[in-house]
Amino acid sequence: MKYRITHTTTYNYSQAVGLCQNQARLQPRNFWRQHCVDSRFEIIPPPKDFRELSDYFGNRLAYFAIQQPHRQLVVTAVSDISLFPGRQRHELLPQQSWRQVQHFFQETSGQNLNKQQLQTLLEAKQYVLDSPMISASPELADYALPSFQDDRPLLDVVSDLMRRIYTDFTYDPTSTTIATPLLEVLAKRRGVCQDFAHLAIGCLRSFGIPARYVSGYLETVPAPGKPRLVGADASHAWFAVYIPDLGWLDFDPTNNKMPHDQHITLAWGRDYADVTPLKGIAFGGGQHTLSVSVDVLRLEGDGGFGEEFF
């Protein structure tokens, strides 16, 4: 599959901004099932300074600074990507129980691992720890407990937890903000994709299972007979779980499915704070309004390389 992603963020200010510095994580990652063929920025007004870097988690990061007075800032990222779903990797290997995985991360010291295995272990262990927006808690553990049956394969545990979040919680964009505490989301049983991803991650970390936050896009399909609306797609979020000898597997609790050929990955980290699409500081500006438009366009033609990726 081939897609073109157009993500436009517009800030309108009541007073002129004299200087702004920004960080953007708006360029899709490259990994086993996804390749970013091309990605470019269109920034108005043009930045004085622009640099592309990688952050701590390996996400693509663009820094730019605008040093001329402006009352509107428009940042557009256009990316062409190819997806290579192949076969689901979890179908190819034996399944481990959640207790085996929990024990692996609690008891493995790394003494008998080679350098690459040790690096992978340490990288995954950081996703067991609390992060700025997600803290393990008895309340989250209590909610997750019915899914954590003794000796149940971890994949079954996570699939059941995903299904329960999908069933128990209502998608309601008016019910939460970025700052809404996770326990409030749990109590209200309402939220958005960001909240549901955070909730699942908190539940898994409460049982010592490493889980990370994934930001990206989801292709939306119009109803039969209806035209596709340009700019109607939105940023999306889901989570991934690490399983030794298998790697990271993605789960989307908002839609109760494992991402396959319609989920485009932008960035990943411990929680939303690590992957904020666009953030920065502005000197001046007064009050401001923000609008975001996302368009996920499926392109014609074969998006594969003629082989399967695992």
TrEMBL record:
User: Domain Transglutaminase-like: where?
Assistant: 185-255
> One Pfam family from the UniProt entry?
Transglut_core
SUPFAM superfamilies referenced in this protein's UniProt entry, alphabetically: Cysteine proteinases (SSF54001)
Signal peptide positions (record): none
Q: Know the name of this protein?
A: Transglutaminase
